[in-house]
Write a structure and sequence with these properties.
- This protein is an all-alpha fold.
- The protein has a domain at 21-144: Multidrug-efflux Transporter Regulator, Chain: A, Domain 2 (Orthogonal Bundle), CATH 1.10.1660.
- Helices cover 56% and strands 0% of the residues.
- The chain has ten helices and no strands.
- The chain has helices spanning 5-21, 37-47, 63-71, 85-97, 103-109, 116-144, 146-149, 156-181, 211-215, 223-229.
- Helix 4 runs parallel beside helix 6.
Length: 230
């Protein structure tokens, strides 16, 4: 991988400065009046402009995507084609969390069918946690990228190593988050020692299948299947 090291350093410093000053709007800062679809898209893009990493895209969400979320019952439907701050709260959380989680997991974090006061509580709690987590992320990034930021002349290998380390961290955080969400409404009594995975140990073949057949069944289960198994 080829990188302009000076560009990487400049961007990392710029992103750090941006995140230190960034904050999501709290519930009372969201418009108290009703909005049409195009107004919702403009506001979401203004609130979440840091999600625009593709120069060919000028909005963080499209009207068809919002309509799909309503159709899939991921968020409440508009009232006479108008959206309130309740809808904005859902969409802000959805737009942020879908960057790393499957939409089905996001739906479990803020389900529909709850009253507005509960949505307000969930949303404000999310905003506060987002701010505090940003500060921790900045410190973590400073440590992770030290080899790039603190060298007078960082090498392409330093940058490549940073990319791999961040990608692995993102994957592990995503996996653990999904596993924890899958534990909703479950207790320790729902699990037996036999269900726990042992690092480096392959799952035992199904007892009803011959060994020869299990060996021909293909590769390990996909990540999605592994998440469901816990």
């Amino acid at each position: 991988m080829n990188y302009d090291n000076k560009l990487i350093v400049a961007k990392l410093q710029r992103w750090e400065k941006y995140l230190r000053g960034f904050s999501l709007p709290e519930w009372d800062e969201l418009p108290a009046f009703e909005l049409y679809m195009d107004q919702v898209i403009v506001l979401l893009t203004r609130y979440l402009d840091y999600l625009l990493y593709d120069a060919s895209t000028d909005t963080v969400i499209t009207a068809s995507t919002i309509n799909n979320y309503v159709r899939m019952k991921i968020m409440p439907p508009p009232v006479k084609k108008r959206y309130s701050r309740l809808h904005l709260a859902y969409l802000i959380i959805i737009c942020i969390m879908k960057q790393s989680l499957n939409i089905a997991y996001v739906q479990k974090m803020i389900p529909i069918g709850i009253d507005e006061e509960e949505v307000k509580r969930i949303y404000n709690d999310f905003v506060n946690k987002y701010k505090h987590t940003c500060y921790r992320f900045i410190e973590q990034m400073s440590n992770e990228s030290a080899a790039v930021l603190r060298k007078e002349e960082a090498t392409a290998e330093d940058v490549s190593n940073l990319v791999v380390e961040l990608a692995v961290s993102a994957n592990l955080f995503k996996l653990v988050t999904e596993k924890i969400i899958n534990l909703q409404d479950k207790t320790l009594a729902d699990f037996t020692p036999e269900q726990e995975r042992v690092p480096g140990k392959r799952p035992r073949p199904h007892s009803s299948l011959p060994v020869e057949q299990t060996e021909e069944m293909g590769p390990e289960p996909t990540e999605q299947a592994a998440v469901k198994e816990g």
